């Protein structure tokens, strides 16, 4: 007997959520470990930059193509399985590789696997959920993703620990093979759905084939892409600059891991509480608060402090920002889905992923310029300014009718 977690007419959502948690755990274990692997093989910061760029480059090119393709497929589970397989094979390849070039190639496959999984998982949720259930669907999906973002980095400390020198090579190999095993564990979770023929989004019969520029011109699309981009970039800024801020305050790497875990846990809690929030406030109001509130709460992070006071200040800032930040992503996804025709929803969600990737390159570059002038604090405050501006833009251009968005 299949367990339905929600009254979605298309079928149970638990296979999507479990596979999302497993694959994201694998991804967030593999990516930092790959950087350690580069160092273990004699690479430097430039080599790590090349590997990071290789991870992001091909998905930027493929995102919209996959979104369009997904709209025409009667079943999307093959894309999900393909994504999980690539997420399993790429770390295993890195584990047995002996060169940075090979790691960069494997990172490309890892990025494509991540993209395949996200596009297909979002399309599956759109097909399973009615319009009234989109907030719940995206809230559960992003909560599952955040679970992987919480567990994956914590596993690095368990598997790699404080290994250095030659020991790092064997330790990273173990971590990468563990990542592969976790990604493979997602396959039997999703494969039972292979016999189901997924209906097109909300029963649409023929794709509208609206070009991407036409989708971008629809009311509310641009501003919600901006908010989503700013929130996604904020996560990267935190991962990049929190260790430097902590170092300046004499805070150990172990505590930094705990701080990031606090933020991830807060995000999960906010996404699981999303339906309750929507009983009291409109979707538009919550999006505005999510972007602006995240910017304001993160602005506390670089304030001067030392010792216990610094840890307390950072904990409060990250916990509050996590609670507020977690609201934005699923709600902007719903707003984007409602702003376009039903048969263009996979494309607009793929376009959202593309915008997030662009923002994760451009906004950190802007933050880096600020950091060159004002240090790590300047980088964080630059990101906060982008979030506040995105919130202001959302206030001025709310998109679809807020009453319909309840």
What does this protein structure show overall?
By secondary structure, this protein is mostly helical. The protein has two domains: 203 residues, MFS general substrate transporter like domains (Growth Hormone, Chain: A, Up-down Bundle); 198 residues, MFS general substrate transporter like domains (Growth Hormone, Chain: A), CATH 1.20.1250. 77% of the residues lie in helices and 0% in strands. It has 14 helices and no strands. The protein starts with 13 loop residues before the first helix and ends in a 10-residue tail after the last helix. The N terminus and C terminus are likely disordered.
Task: Sum up the structure in keywords.
2 domains; 406 residues; 14 helices; Growth Hormone, Chain: A; globular; disordered C terminus; mainly alpha
Blueprint (SSEs and pairs):
Blueprint: H1 14-40, H2 45-72, H3 77-96, H4 100-128, H5 134-159, H6 166-185, H7 187-190, H8 212-216, H9 221-248, H10 253-272, H11 274-278, H12 283-298, H13 307-339, H14 345-396
Helix pairs in contact: 1-2, 1-3, 1-4, 1-5, 1-6, 2-4, 2-14, 3-4, 3-6, 4-5, 4-14, 5-10, 5-13, 9-13, 9-14, 10-13, 12-13, 12-14, 13-14
